[in-house]
Structure prediction request, 197 residues.
Amino acid sequence: MKPLPSISADACRPFLSELEPLFDAMDREYERVAGRYGFTCTGCADNCCQTRFYHHTLLEFTYLSKGFRSLSETERGQITARAGEVVKQSEAADAWGDTIRLWCPLNDAGKCVLYPYRPMICRLHGIPHELRRPAQPPRVGPGCDDFHGQCGQGAYIRFDRTPFYARMAALERQLRQAVGCSDRLKLTVAEMILQFP
Ligand code: SF4
Prediction:
């Protein structure tokens, strides 16, 4: 895991101010569509906080880092210890070719400690969605198992991630240009935590 270059919080601030309303818009659209289905995430056996999601933007890294800094020293220490354990166990499983499901180190007794700061996929996962690319048919993704358990295979209610991804990509480009960072990112939440300043 290559360490990221240190990036000044001041340089990131204007971009995070734009990220907040974008995340709010994602949350509102998700809630609107989930509400129309009557779907409620209640924390299932196949919990997405145990899924190894990778995150790719400096925006999500710096925003989660901002939330992390708002925690007490004790909380930060406990979470960092959990993150170290998750990374260690994941690497060991990978070395053996095993699949392993581990709780995200930010999940404490079923609740996300940094819920307002959570990354994009934590906001969008669960309900069926579509993604459009130029000159290609829309790619449709299914909902999670719990969604299908609760809502069955009824009619699709449109949930288009495309405008959110496009606005994230544009904002990410601007941030990277401003801070001079071209490193590729592919980090789990546990790996991000171990890199926080
Ligand atoms: S960041 Fe929060 S919502 Fe996302 S996987 Fe971790 S605990 Fe779950």
User: Anything to note?
Assistant: Residues 9-195 form one domain. The pocket of iron/sulfur cluster is lined by residues 49, 104, 106-107, 112, 118, 122, 189 (CB under 6 Å). The chain has a mean pLDDT of 94. Helices lie at 9-37, 58-69, 73-96, 120-124, 145-151, 162-179, 189-195.
